[in-house]
Write a structure and sequence with these properties.
The structure holds two protein chains of two kinds.
Chain A (H helix, E strand, L loop, with lengths): L1 H6 L2 H42 L9 H8 L1 H34 L2 H12 L6 H12 L4 H8 L13 H25 L3 H9 L4 H29 L3 H6 L7 H11 L3 H33 L3
Chain B lengths: L2 H4 L15 E10 L2 E11 L4 E5 L6 H9 L6 E6 L2 E2 L10 E4 L11 H11 L4 H14 L15 H13 L5 E5 L7 H18 L2 E6 L2 H7 L2 E6 L2 E6 L1 H6 L4 H6 L4 E10 L3 E6 L2 E6 L8 E6 L5 E2 L8 E12 L3 E8 L3 E8 L12 E6 L5 E3 L7
Parallel strand pairs in B: 3-8, 3-9, 6-7, 7-8
Antiparallel strand pairs in B: 1-2, 1-4, 4-5, 9-10, 11-12, 11-14, 12-13, 14-20, 15-19, 16-17, 16-19, 17-18
Helix pairs in contact in B: 3-4, 3-5, 4-5
The chains are: A mainly alpha, B alpha+beta.
Chain lengths: 296, 378
Amino acid sequence: MPRDAAALPAAPVAGHGLALPREAGWWLLLVPAFLLMTVLYLAPILQVLAISVTEPAPGLGNYERLLTHPGLQRVIVTTLRICLVTTILSLLLGYALSYVIALASPRAQRWWLLGVLLPLWISVLVRAFAWVTLLRRQGLVNEGLLGLGLIDRPLPLVWNEFGIVVGMVHYMVPYAVLPMLAAMREIDPRLLAAARGLGASRGTAFRRVFLPLSAPGLVAAGVLVFIVTLGFYITPAILGGGKTLMAAEWIKLQILDLVRWGMGAMLATMLVVTILTLLGIFSRILDLRRVFGGGR
Amino acid sequence: MSAATREAPLAPRAGKGTGHALELRALSKRYGAFTAVDAVSLRVERGQFLTLLGPSGSGKTTILMAIAGFVAPSEGAVLLDGRDITALPPERRAFGMVFQGYALFPHMTVAENVAFPLRVRRLSRAEREAKVRAALDLVQLDRFADRRPAQLSGGQQQRVALARALVFDPDLLLLDEPLSALDKKLRAELQEELKALHRRVGRTFVNVTHDQEEALSLSDQVAILNHGRLVQMGAPAALYERPRTRFVADFLGTSNFLRGTVQEAGDPGLALQAGGTRLLQAGADLPPGSPVLLSLRPEKIALLGEAERAANEVAGTIAAWAYLGAGYSLTVRTADLGALRVALPAWRAPIAPSEGLPVRLGWAADAAVPVLEDADAA
């Protein structure tokens, strides 16, 4: 023991001397990305955010409008409602999908996963127009239902909130699946067998073991989907037909059409703040997951 | 934590014979063309500790899973006290099970884990708490009730799994390699605890392991499996002393195998010819001319001094040796019988082993046992 103790202090010194120039070299590799982020990304964003308290006059005037401007309030409420509905639907569909994938054989899992990821490679614009052709008055869905005699006049499926939600859910399901699938794959399948062996029915084993263990993935997916949907622009613009305004489109309207930079920048700031707050919650949940998952 | 409170709800049921009897009838499980379990029939009496022992792929875990209800047998039946339970789903069998790696619920505390079987059985809160406390007392983990499994050592987790499996008074306790994840010292400790626990709760235990030492030290009965078949079942000492086949003799402990031909059958036994050596073997009755395979344990071979005589004697030289603390393991090369393993106690050993040292080996006529070749073992 004393011999070991005597040898110990010498080792880090030698290691330190060797490691220093190498570490410095690695740091240099970060410089281009760092400059790109600060000069071309963070700086302009901060500048835009500064506009929200300087245009048209310095102060918090733009933020006061949040409390007084009914049109703006309607846009915010609509945005939150659509995002919430989209999140809930994406989670429900995504959870079922993840559950099936997580319990499938490894071979089947690869095919399922390909099926989930494939839509991500198709442009959001193409997908939005595809939904329009499906859902419009003379679209496949309405024509089909009319042909079957199930309805006697076309249903209003697009150019309203329903159409927006359909398009957004379609876009968001893969984003919901990936974090939930990751969480579910970490669940030891023996835990379900153990629950049943100890007297739990299939339903009880799911409710008391699988659901709580997959909950961190569910919450993470929820936060992720909600954050992404908050900034949706193309899908609501096309499937909403200009009648339903969401936050991103309203910002574009303020800045490009009405040239009210201050108002646009103000709502943009609010979006960023909301997203950062949600991300704060998100990171807390990741910590919780470590606490739960460490037990295996 | 007196003995009385510790044993309250899981009171010892007057020793053995109070659990439930389990019977397997011609149980088979096939996966496509692969037969994992091949017509296994066996019976465990009430309150007994049965170990299914075999190498990996011998079908022992599949049998346990069929008993638990997780695997549906292709053929055959599982009976509990004579009642056919083959079609019952696992949750309706009321068997406690300790899984390999324990399968503790990581999102629950120790107490919640142990309470789980009671919760799904809708016991009242008061009943639940009393039983959980008693079960945790039983495995001496009462102080850890509020910890999470991740905060416990491997041995403690194993005890939680035991408490969880026993808390609801199961008809049968099934153990799937319960000690395999622990280091050697802890394993020996928990082996003793498990044995004491079995004696205390008086339930029928079915254990699966590939560790022969664990099987010998824990069990009332050991069933030895190979390639999905039951090779031999019996009390540990009976299996060790009277293995039926070469596989059993080889898998339980170590053994030398001697091949010979019967020359005369008479009193006190057979006279065999093995190469140029004549051997005497008691306790077997075979006609002259039959081939015989003998299993001879290394510890039953003695090193003979100059004046010493034995029923069977053979000369050889030490080809290799190893010092193991309690004894030496010698490999002695002989002219007629090939290399023989000999276990020599180290304490006051008559020789100091060295390579090339000539030795004389001897064993009694009843030291070896005739065994069958595992013709179907391929």
